From TrEMBL:
Topological relation to the membrane, as annotated: Multi-pass membrane protein
Protein name: Probable membrane transporter protein
TM region positions: 45-65, 71-91, 112-131, 143-162, 183-216, 244-267, 279-297
Source taxon at top rank: Bacteria
Entry keyword annotation includes Protein biosynthesis: no
Lineage of the species this protein comes from: Bacteria, Pseudomonadati, Pseudomonadota, Betaproteobacteria, Burkholderiales
One term under GO cellular component: plasma membrane
Keywords of the record: Cell membrane, Membrane, Transmembrane, Transmembrane helix
Species per Swiss-Prot/TrEMBL record: Paraburkholderia eburnea
Family: Belongs to the 4-toluene sulfonate uptake permease (TSUP) (TC 2.A.102) family.
Subcellular location: Cell membrane; Membrane
Amino acid sequence: MRDKTVAQNFRKISSIPAPERRFCDNSGLSPIRAAAMHLPHIEPLYSLSGLAVGFLVGLTGVGGGSLMTPILVLLFNVHPATAVGTDLLYAAATKSAGTLVHGLKGSVDWRVTLRLAAGSVPAATITLILLHRYGMDTPRAGHLIQAVLGAALLITAVALLFRPQLAAFAARHRHGPSETRTLLFTILTGAILGALVSLTSVGAGAIGVTVLLLLYPALPTVRIVGSDVAHAVPLTLLAGAGHWLLGSIDWSMLLSLLCGSLPGIAIGSMLSSRAPEKLLRMLLAATLTLVGVRLVLA
């Protein structure tokens, strides 16, 4: 009787197609457990890095891509293209929450946001097409992304250091350029940011805000920041989707980063009013300078 039952079970297993039969072989795993093994899993070190970066972003409003991408490249030895692509979707998720808050507070000037997007969306699309055409997984592409990333970090550091002086200059010249020039320069700024963010994931924050301070001196700083954050959402989503199609997204890494960064941003935001803003800005600028030089020289 037992032999007959074994024979019947053998015939049942043999009738299952080969791709499905692998779950019934020597592994002893059910299809559900075997499928679960292929789901993204949490890496504690990535989550810890996300927590630290998220805390700094909540505390200072700066540092998402400019800190996360270099950490992935230099500390975790992630390929620059994968680090950029994963960080773009990470930034899209975190900045979406920031845009919701700014939108509810009424601190977004949608006119400025649309002008930036008019330049950044086409520029990001062209950059992604060029990356697809020339390849992203080659050593040459990795070196190019790393060098441009280093240069973007150095520009970001300068923008952070001199932001108060630029804000004071803008306050003294509240008339600013003419409306036509403001429109053209805003679209041009968006185009530069679109290419830079698609290539490095850096620039939408500190660089964008610094330029907008000069172009819109009569606009309150909180509305400039809100408009810049709102513009970063479609830009990082588009660039992140492009990198996804190019195959440069690590979903396990992305999930791990978000698990740490979302609570980190919340904690940092609650403590931001007590933080020594000037000291943090100088430390962040010094860190970005060191990392930028390291990436450029590498």
